[in-house]
């Protein structure tokens, strides 16, 4: 065994957020590459009328677990599912389940969080702040705890222009804030939210920063580490190339662009797009946990170590690069559900973008909805664009502000990792080829998000060709109409 594999040998690992995007890859990687792990205790909540066991069984049907099934077919006996709820006091654990965790667990990965940028403050505070504090309280009772890793975000202090691997001030107090909002209605909370957030752009980044502060103040004698990944995107290579299961962040932009729905967005093409593949994130997370434990045993640090996991320091790309790399490959991987040919404009100015929204989104949508009403169908386009604009406005902050990061500790972690573990858990962003990565990015969206097999590509390409010619015809007609209007105006003036 390698050093890292040996650390996890015989360990019982507690994971929250195992049903999420990052959590699935963490579960898969631990079971496949750390075969000596004894058990994975997964805290799962009932959702949409499905019990926790049904949810886990459905998750293991995802193709991302196919390689694990082939290489470690008897992995399921290591999965222990425990009912829990991160929004409930004490995580909603029963007395017997809590005692089991206290007796058995060695390693804790806290991944559960609400990642909606515009989440209501009440829900964001419960999930992103109270839950990790409850889990820290549990960790304090765990008899054989070796490491506790809290997964935060590189943007927890996104109101700053330079972010190092250290804690930053956050004046809010979670206890006082919780007592205050408990006495308020949702409408009252909405009114005070801007004052509560202060410099932070949204409830997600604010609650992540507040959680870091509270964990720091309450983690004495706990082997705690804070892990801050940047914008987590589809897998690089493990266990599948470009696997993903959500449309958050840049993936939503890529989908909107490739389907022809998104034609304008407020974005500075020169600003850094700090993308990190989810399998690389998980590899670094697993190695970082071992490092936190090892350093704590040697000499407990004065403060919990922080790992900024970003790509910009060693392998920077911009939002302009992200757009260009995808645009160059859309013809190769067109979507069957495309409604128009690709035509995306990046506007740094909010005013220019608002004008483009009017002419490229709202007026065409109103026209389509009007035609739908005339033929007796339900109008939907304006409703769709309201969602698109809400999504775009949330992202615009991160697409127009340049933030620089320091990831010294993370780079040192890579340098000090053994060659064997570098092969098993590769996480150096310097070794990522963005060109190769984006060769399969759109293909991954087709396969794993839209469930389209490659057999549908010929038909999708024929449709894409028709949309291209239709797009060109509309452009020509619009240009001729504009010339006619200008000519008529000049004729009247003269």
Automatic annotation (TrEMBL):
Domain of life: Eukaryota
GO molecular-function terms, A-Z: alcohol-forming long-chain fatty acyl-CoA reductase activity; alcohol-forming very long-chain fatty acyl-CoA reductase activity
GO cellular component terms, A-Z: membrane; peroxisome
Subcellular location: Membrane
UniProt keyword Lipid biosynthesis present: yes
Sequence ranges assigned to domain Thioester reductase (TE) in this UniProt record: 15-284
Catalytic activity field: a long-chain fatty acyl-CoA + 2 NADPH + 2 H(+) = a long-chain primary fatty alcohol + 2 NADP(+) + CoA
Ranges annotated as spanning the membrane: 351-376, 467-487
EC numbers: 1.2.1.84
InterPro entries according to UniProt: FAR (IPR026055), FAR_C (IPR033640), FAR_NAD-bd (IPR013120), NAD(P)-bd_dom_sf (IPR036291)
Keywords in alphabetical order: Lipid biosynthesis, Lipid metabolism, Membrane, NADP, Oxidoreductase, Transmembrane, Transmembrane helix
Main location: membrane
Membrane topology: Multi-pass membrane protein
Any Gene Ontology biological process: long-chain fatty-acyl-CoA metabolic process
Ranges where the Fatty acyl-CoA reductase C-terminal domain occurs: 360-452
Family that this chain belongs to: Belongs to the fatty acyl-CoA reductase family.
Function: Catalyzes the reduction of fatty acyl-CoA to fatty alcohols.
Name of the featured protein: Fatty acyl-CoA reductase
Organism: Danaus plexippus plexippus
């Amino acid at each position: 065994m390698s050093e890292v594999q040996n650390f996890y040998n015989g360990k019982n690992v507690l994971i929250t957020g195992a049903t999420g995007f990052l959590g699935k890859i963490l579960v898969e990687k631990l079971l496949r590459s750390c075969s000596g792990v004894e058990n994975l205790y997964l805290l799962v909540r009932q959702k949409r009328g499905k019990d926790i066991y049904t949810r886990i069984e459905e998750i293991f049907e995802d193709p991302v677990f196919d390689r694990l099934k082939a290489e470690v077919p008897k992995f399921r006996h290591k999965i222990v599912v425990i009912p829990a709820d991160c929004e409930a006091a004490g995580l909603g654990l029963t007395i017997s389940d809590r005692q089991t965790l206290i007796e058995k667990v060695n390693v804790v990965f806290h991944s559960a969080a609400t990642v909606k940028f515009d989440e209501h403050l009440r829900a964001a505070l419960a999930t992103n702040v109270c839950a990790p504090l409850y889990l820290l309280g549990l960790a304090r009772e765990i008899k054989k705890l070796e490491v506790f890793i809290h997964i935060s975000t590189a943007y927890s202090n996104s109101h700053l222009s330079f972010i190092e691997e250290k804690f930053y001030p956050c004046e809010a107090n979670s206890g006082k804030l919780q007592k205050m909002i408990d006495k308020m209605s949702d409408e009252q909370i909405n009114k005070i939210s801007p004052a509560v957030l202060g410099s932070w752009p949204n409830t997600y980044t604010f609650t992540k920063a507040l959680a870091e502060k509270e964990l720091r103040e309450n983690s004495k004698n706990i082997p705690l580490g804070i892990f801050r990944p940047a914008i987590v995107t589809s897998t690089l290579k493990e266990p599948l190339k470009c696997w993903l299961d959500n449309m958050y962040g840049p993936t939503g932009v890529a989908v909107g662009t490739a389907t022809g729905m998104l034609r304008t967005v407020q974005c500075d093409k020169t600003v850094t797009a700090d993308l990190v593949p989810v399998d690389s994130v998980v590899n670094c997370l697993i190695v970082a946990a071992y490092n936190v434990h090892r350093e704590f045993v040697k000499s407990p640090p004065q403060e919990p170590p922080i790992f900024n996991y970003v790509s910009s320091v060693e392998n920077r790309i911009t939002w302009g690069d992200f757009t260009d790399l995808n645009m160059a490959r859309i013809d190769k991987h067109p979507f069957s559900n495309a409604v128009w040919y690709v035509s995306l404009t990046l506007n740094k100015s909010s005013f220019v973008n608002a004008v483009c929204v009017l002419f490229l989104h709202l007026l065409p949508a109103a026209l389509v909805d009007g035609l739908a009403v005339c033929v007796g169908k339900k109008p939907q386009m304006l409703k769709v664009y309201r969602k698109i604009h809400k999504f775009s406005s949330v992202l615009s902050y991160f697409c127009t502000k340049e933030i620089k990061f320091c990831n010294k500790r993370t780079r040192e972690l890579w340098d000090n990792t053994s060659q064997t573990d570098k092969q098993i858990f590769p996480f150096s962003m310097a070794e990522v080829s963005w060109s190769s990565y984006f060769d399969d990015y759109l293909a991954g969206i087709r396969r794993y998000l839209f469930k389209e097999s490659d057999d549908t590509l010929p038909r999708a390409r024929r449709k894409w060709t028709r949309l291209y010619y239709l797009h060109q015809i509309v452009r020509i007609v619009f240009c001729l109409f504009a010339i006619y209007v200008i000519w008529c105006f000049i004729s009247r003036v003269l």
